[in-house]
Amino acid sequence: MNKLRFLLFSFVIVGLSAISEAQIFTGFGVQTGINYGESVIKETFTSEGVDFNYATDEADVAVNWGIFTRFEFGKIVFQPQILASNYNTKMRLSAPEFDSILTLKQNRFDIPLLLGYAPTKSFRFLIGPVYTRQLENKVQTDEFLFDEFKTIFNGGSWALQMGFGFDMGRLNIDCKYETNLGNITDSVTLKGTEFAFDQRSNSVQVTLGYDFIK
To answer: Residue 74: left (phi > 0), alpha (psi -120 to 50), or beta?
Structure first.
């Protein structure tokens, strides 16, 4: 964990150093796009002598929106963002007596701090840490399981994003892959019993932005 914190701190320091030296504010605008995220789950819980299998069924597409800024020093790019993101994932909860699909809906607040290299004026590679704060999590399914099943999410976690972006005049497109550096869930509560497990998520994010400065 100390190494992880040092890595994240180094990314921020390098980015801020580039800003202070260059003082070139090259972009500010709004973004919106889609998230395709998958929670990696495969667990078995035993409650009241019954084995419950809990596993990822499939991911779904959801939306994101927010703002971005961009600073450039030569070919080095620092691009912080603030995004409100939604993620939908379908899970299957099954036991000998039933088989049910749950739709997990997550609303969260993301702050990517991305460093990049721009080989041309319109194309850039990006990588950096992302701080995520869970705002709301809902499980949608039939009434019985909705009352009996609850997933407990951590308030905040760190992830890593990497990808590329390119500009078309004032329009820009970013395509990024995100993987969690820590678990986003510590436990689930099923039929009144809490079970500890480690849930992580990976996602692909595509955003379309409009730059007010270019």
So the answer is: left
User: What pLDDT, in 10s, does the model give residues 8-37?
Assistant: 555 555 555 555 454 588 889 999 999 887
DSSP class of residue 157 equals: E
Residue bearing tokens 């950096």: 128
The pairing of strands 76-95 and 185-190 is unpaired
Q: What number is the average pLDDT over the span 116-134?
A: 92
- Indicate the average pLDDT of the chain: 76
Reading the block at residue 172, the tokens are: 């820009």
Residue 134 half-sphere exposure toward CB, CA atoms < 13 A: 19
List of domains in the chain = 2-211 (2.40.160.20)
